[in-house]
Specification:
The complex is a heterodimer of chains A (about 240) and B (about 210). Chain A is about 20% helix and about 25% strand. Chain A is an alpha/beta fold and about 240 residues long. In chain A, strands 1, 2, 3, 4, 8, 9, 10 and 11 form an eight-stranded mixed β-sheet that branches. The longest helix of chain A has 12 residues, at about 105-115. Chain A starts with 8 loop residues before the first helix and ends in a 6-residue tail after the last helix. Chain B has about 210 residues and is of the alpha/beta class. Helices cover about 15% and strands about 25% of the residues of chain B. Chain B has helices at about 1-5, 80-85, 125-130, 190-195, and strands at about 15, 35-40, 45, 70-75, 90-95, 100, 105, 130-135, 150, 165, 170-175, 180-185, 200-205. Chain B is globular. The chains are: A alpha/beta (about 240), B alpha/beta (about 210). The interface of A and B includes residues 53, 102, 176 and 226 of A.
Chain lengths: ~240, ~210
């Protein structure tokens, strides 16, 4: 029988190894799998390369993972937001590497990686500093840069609902990078608020088909990053 | 300024509004016109701001502010969202600017200072993928320095991508023969606009020679 449910966030991330590449979903706090990130902090893996749109806020979630020195490099489009202090301090101190990628290129690199496409061409970033060092080619008179697909060892994603096959539906704009990150990782790990029986999710509305998901853990009432930051909490 | 931009959005347009000033455009769309607002983090059909008791932390815009979804809205993942941008499906983008050059070069993501934390977001994707780019900005910096220049000094977001500039002083088209002033704010003359602009302007408003 196929059953992708695991009992706890700790169990879900137990085999993340030092030096792993980990995609972490979320756009700001929307879709950030905060309980999985906290479990990864407890687990202790170091030297991680994190692929994520932002770098977290306050002292919780992704910002806490970075603060505890677990992240060697981020591949990211917007590594600062309101209440984001951890990454800027570490970056200025030369303690973390940044690969800055335009947001749409980041999304397409992840999509391509998950679809087995090693590279593609895009007009985004042509004529800017982010074109530097990349192969260019002209299509129908338009210059494009070559960008490589991105894959990962693990992805940590938050969704709304799952069944034991790993079929997923998301919540509003918290969907953001979740579906493509599930496709691009060898082991995609998803926290959901609710587990339902197979068939309860209409096949017509499944957003991520279960084949892209390896592990699902139920976190019924996930923490809100902004609320924790407001309350001045930190993790652990 | 935002009202001026809204007047130039045709009925039926799909529009992406950048962070900051451009967010104001939606509220000024003239009666009887319908535009669909694209939010690049995964929503087509952004509605008005939510009531304070209806804020949903999982329904936000690109500036990470809470928004609402209109009846008939759609949610999608990031690769689909940027396929709408890169695939030329969004008609108009309204963006803020640090600098705009006379050839339409735009700089709006970084001052290039060594200790600045580089953060680009979706700006480069928007200007490369959307055909009509409107810039909405104050005419000069807080210190009175011109933002419209012969050449940008900050790192570029994209080359020759801006079509029209809306400022507190004027509406200026970027054309093959240079910057053409289409309209001026009440009480503002062409000479004043030129004086506060770092590139040559051509008069192209009603009553002018051009």
């Amino acid at each position: 029988m196929i059953d992708k449910r695991v009992a706890s966030a700790a169990e879900a991330v137990a085999d993340v190894h030092d030096g792993a590449t980990v995609m972490i979903g979320g756009f700001g706090e929307a879709g950030s799998p905060i309980e999985l990130i906290h479990a990864l902090i407890d687990q202790g893996a170091r030297g991680l390369t994190v692929v994520s749109n932002n770098t977290g806020s306050g002292d919780v979630g992704l910002a806490a993972l970075i603060k505890h020195g677990r992240v060697a490099k981020v591949i990211c489009s917007y590594p600062r937001t309101a209440n984001s202090t951890v990454f800027p301090e570490m970056y200025r101190a030369g303690r973390i590497e940044l690969e800055l990628v335009p947001q749409g290129t980041l999304a397409e690199r992840i999509r391509a990686g998950g679809a087995g496409i090693p590279a593609f061409y895009t007009a985004t970033a042509v004529g800017t500093v982010l074109e530097a060092g990349k192969e260019t080619r002209s299509f129908a008179g338009r210059t494009c840069v070559m960008e490589h697909g991105l894959t990962a060892d693990f992805s940590l994603v938050k969704a709304r609902r799952a069944d034991r096959y790993g079929n997923l539906v998301y919540n509003k704009t918290a969907r953001n990078f979740g579906p493509i990150m599930c496709t691009a990782a060898s082991v995609s790990i998803v926290q959901v608020e609710e587990m339902v029986s197979p068939g309860e999710i209409d096949p017509e509305v499944v957003v991520t088909p279960g084949v892209f998901v390896k592990r699902v853990v139920v976190v019924p009432d996930p923490a809100l990053e902004s609320q924790w930051v407001r309350e001045g909490r930190s993790y652990p | 300024m935002a009202r001026q931009v809204a007047r130039d959005i045709p009925d039926g347009a799909y529009v992406n509004l950048g962070i900051g000033l451009p967010e104001l455009v939606a509220q000024y769309l003239p009666e009887g016109r319908e535009a669909i607002y694209h939010v690049e983090n995964g929503l087509l059909g952004m509605g008005p701001d939510p009531a304070p008791d209806a804020v949903d932390s999982e329904l936000i815009n690109a500036g990470k502010k809470p928004v609402t979804a209109i009846p008939g809205a759609a949610y999608f993942h990031h690769a689909d969202s940027f396929a709408m941008i890169r695939g030329r499906h969004i008609d108009i983008c309204v963006l803020g600017a640090m600098q705009v050059a006379m050839n339409g070069d735009l700089a709006n993501w970084s001052t290039g200072e060594p200790d600045a934390i580089p953060a680009v977001g979706g700006a480069m994707d928007l200007v490369a993928g959307i055909r009509t780019i409107y810039v909405l900005t104050q005419h000069t910096t807080r210190d009175g320095e011109p933002k419209i220049l012969e050449r940008c000094t900050y790192p570029l977001t994209g080359r020759a991508c801006v079509d029209r500039i809306y400022t507190d002083l004027a509406v200026i088209d970027v054309t093959s023969r240079g910057l053409v002033v289409r309209q001026m704010a009440p009480g503002v003359g062409f000479e004043e606009v030129q004086r506060r602009t770092g590139a040559p302007l051509f008069p192209g408003f009603a009553g002018s020679a051009a």
